[in-house]
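#structure-requests
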Amino acid sequence: MLVVESHFWVSGGGMQLLFESSQEFGDHKGLGLIEGEVIAFDKSKFDHKLKVPHMGWNELFVQKETPLFKNLQEEFYLYFVHSYHVVCDDRYSIGKTYYGYEFVSAGIEIISMEFNHTQRRAIVWGLGL
């Protein structure tokens, strides 16, 4: 885990721990640091047939300006490998991604992002951290 300006940077399972609950591998309580839950992609909501897990590059749509996103290009892509996503109030969302439907891929209060850690070096360099 990398600490940036007193915010926590986490990905994957670390993001799940920050919320109140997660459905992955059963129903589990999280730390409850952010109101919301982590749920499986609902294939019935997809606007067309897609595979789960969501794997590949996908655009991050910035919802709120934060220091984390200060140096991003207008079109910014992250690499995803996941079957679950966060459901939370928009006040906690700083970034969303579209895969069959829109989901929160970056949250604030405690900054958290969901993307594949194997591509993190290029992403962190792109953010200027």
